[in-house]
């Protein structure tokens, strides 16, 4: 379920080319989750790592997570 949630969230990523040639990516539903890298692929990989860490930290702290598609991880966070 976590893997599916992460994949669904990444599908909503916004990627743009910056003036310096780097790629910048963010996911609007996840404040503070962004990456910047020299290539689109590296940017995508970094974004996935940042998102995963953000979700895990949010679950540990009991923060409310965005519901993405049919995936709601908030019940998991409440159980701990």
Q: Fraction of residues in helices?
A: 40-55%
Assign an overall shape: elongated
Q: List low-confidence stretches.
A: none
Give me the strand/helix succession: HEEEHH
Strand order of the largest sheet: 1-2-3
For the CA atoms, what is the radius of gyration? 13 Å
| CATH architecture label | 2-Layer Sandwich
CATH top level assignment: Alpha Beta
- CATH names the topology as Double Stranded RNA Binding Domain
Straight-line N-to-C gap: 17 Å
Main beta-sheet strand count, sense and barrel state:
3 strands, antiparallel
Structural class: alpha+beta
Share of β-strand residues: 15-25%
How many structural domains? 1
How many DSSP E strands?
A: 3
Sum up the structure in keywords.
Double Stranded RNA Binding Domain, 80 residues, 48% helix, alpha+beta, 3 helices, three-stranded antiparallel beta sheet, elongated
Could you explain how this protein is built, in words?
- It contains 3 helices and 3 strands; from the N terminus they run H-E-E-E-H-H.
- The mean pLDDT is 93.
- The chain has one domain (2-74): Double Stranded RNA Binding Domain (2-Layer Sandwich).
- A hairpin with a 7-residue loop joins strand 2 (23-26) and strand 3.
- The protein is an alpha+beta fold and 80 residues long.
- The longest helix has 22 residues, at 40-61.
- The protein has helices at residues 2-11, 40-61, 74-79; strands at residues 14-17, 23-26, 34-37.
- A 3-stranded antiparallel β-sheet has the order 1-2-3, covered by helices on one side.
């Amino acid at each position: 379920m976590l893997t599916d949630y992460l994949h669904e969230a990444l599908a909503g990523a916004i990627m743009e080319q910056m003036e310096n040639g780097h790629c910048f990516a963010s996911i609007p539903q996840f404040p503070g989750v962004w990456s910047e890298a020299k290539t689109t692929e590296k940017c995508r990989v970094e974004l996935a790592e940042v998102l995963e860490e953000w979700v895990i930290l949010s679950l540990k702290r009991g923060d409310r997570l965005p519901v993405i598609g049919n995936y709601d991880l908030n019940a998991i966070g409440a159980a701990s």
